[in-house]
Amino acid sequence: KSCRLGRYVTIAERVILREVVVGDFSYFERHAEAAYATIGKFCSIAPNTRINALEHPLERVTTHKVSYRPNEYFRGLGVDSGFLERRRGKPVSIGHDVWIGHGAVILPGVTVGNGAVIGANAVVRNDVAPFTIVAGVPARPLRLRFEPEIVFRLETLAWWDWPAERIAEAVPDMQSLTIEAFLDRWGSK
């Protein structure tokens, strides 16, 4: 519903997207869900993930959806637009080249940096720095994928913004060169 999908995006079966922008080459595996989110290019989103997982109104007499979606039960009662706007006001932002592992949950308002990895079944409630691997409940940083100098060079290179033809040309080097050799070769072009 109300989504914008980039080029070469793949959405598997039973994926639910509501007001989501998905960047070029990103994909969602089966049974995933995202709402009110922006997802960068080249993101790998595993099955059963939840991006901007639904929150319930803890401050109300009931947390049940009867208080914010009564239309599902009672004719003539509409959706609580204030609650809907509250959810829209906490978008999730996922950078480029992010891998979100099986069953991970990303809570409202979180920003995940470029190149980050979210471990399987992690619950992410805080922002994730670029190229950081997080895991656990709640998710905690485990380590950087690369040394800070390499992270800086990758962010500067921003290969995910290259034209598709240049990326296709670089794929053999992505497969065979070390990260340093790749950056040396393609960072100077």
Write a structural description.
With 189 residues, this protein is of the alpha/beta class. Helices cover 21% and strands 24% of the residues. It has four helices and 15 strands. It has helices spanning 81-88, 148-157, 164-176, 179-186; strands spanning 4-5, 10-11, 16-22, 27-28, 33-39, 44-45, 50-51, 92-94, 99-100, 105-106, 111-112, 117-118, 123-124, 132-135, 140-144. The strands form two sheets. Strands 1, 3, 5, 7, 8, 10, 11 and 13 form an eight-stranded parallel β-sheet that branches. A hairpin with a 4-residue loop joins strand 14 (132-135) and strand 15 (140-144). Helix 2 runs parallel beside helix 4. The longest helix is centred in the C-terminal third of the chain and has 13 residues, at 164-176. It is elongated. The N and C termini lie far apart (40 Å).
What keywords describe this structure?
single chain; 189 residues; alpha/beta; 8-stranded parallel β-sheet; 4 helices; 15 strands; elongated
Oligomer: single chain
**What structural category do the secondary elements indicate?**
alpha/beta
Radius of gyration: 19 Å
Taken from the alpha-carbon principal axes, the silhouette is elongated
Low-confidence stretches: none
Query: What would the average pLDDT be, to the nearest integer?
Result: 95
The percentage helix is 10-25%
Tell me what portion of residues adopts beta-strand conformation. 15-25%
